[in-house]
Amino acid sequence: MTATPKGPASYFPSIEKKYGRPITEWKDLIRSSPLTKHMELVTWLKTEHGLGHGHANALVAHTLAEDTGG
Asked: How many Å apart are CA 14 and CA 41, to the nearest integer?
């Protein structure tokens, strides 16, 4: 039995379903952006890619935590 995802990762199934892109693709987009600050990235995902605030926030938080070893 697999554990239920907690925190930002708990949003991933609904993000993939709603926006039709795998999470790895979203993370690649975030990592390729020249922006580095959390809220700049969230705003960028919302304005340029049409994500809702919660979904954008979850993706950015999870990606930045991975990249900093958090």
From this structure: 20
